[in-house]
Amino acid sequence: MTKPKKSVPRKGAKAKPAKVEDAQASRKALCPPPPDLDKSAPQLSHLGGSKHDEWNQVLCNQVLKAGWYGSDPGLKTRQDAYYGNLAFLAGVSPKDVIEGMMAAQLFASHAAAMECYRRAALPEQTSQGRDMNLRHAAKLTRANAAHVEALAKHRNKGQQKVTVEHVHVYQGGQAAFIANVTPGEGVGQIQEGQPHAVGYAPSASLRCADPLRQALPSTRDAERSLQNARGPVSGSA
Description:
- The protein is mainly alpha-helical.
- The protein is built from six helices and two strands; from the N terminus they run H-H-H-H-H-H-E-E.
- It has a two-stranded antiparallel ribbon with strand order 1-2.
- Helix 3 runs parallel beside helix 5 and helix 5 packs antiparallel against helix 6.
């Protein structure tokens, strides 16, 4: 029984690297430096909000893949659509990675909603398909509004703005006002010296309707006689 021959590398041939080393090298990941030590100058931070263009590029690719460009668009049409989608990110101008993710999700929900509206308007669309696409579009529109509100709260750190519209000062120093509370626009304060924002206004004390009326007796432990609660009745004996 013949033994299999071992392959002998030819002279001058380069030895192939071990597959185990390649697998271990592919599992390694480079860690970016902390923010205080990072001296990089990113060029795509206005799109992704990160100091690292690697993440900004990943986010931009996700946004471009979330769009609909037709079944067979031309090169010029696709490039114009890419430019417009990235212009949306530039318009949002994220200041950090959280805002960048919110901007990407905002674009994705908008693009999906518009695609559902487009499919619902197709002339060969069935009534069931039209209703289904309109329901999906309504859900995506509400999700889009939730993304806008979440982005506004994140940018303004959850602060609220109080706007005083009407102030009514009643006799006795009581003041009532009607205010609108707007979330995410800072905290409003009533400044001193504003004539329309008076919190207390002194006024004269109210007079009694009957000036001859006697005051009620004060409470004490000593025994005392009670006054007649009923006055004289006309015609009584």
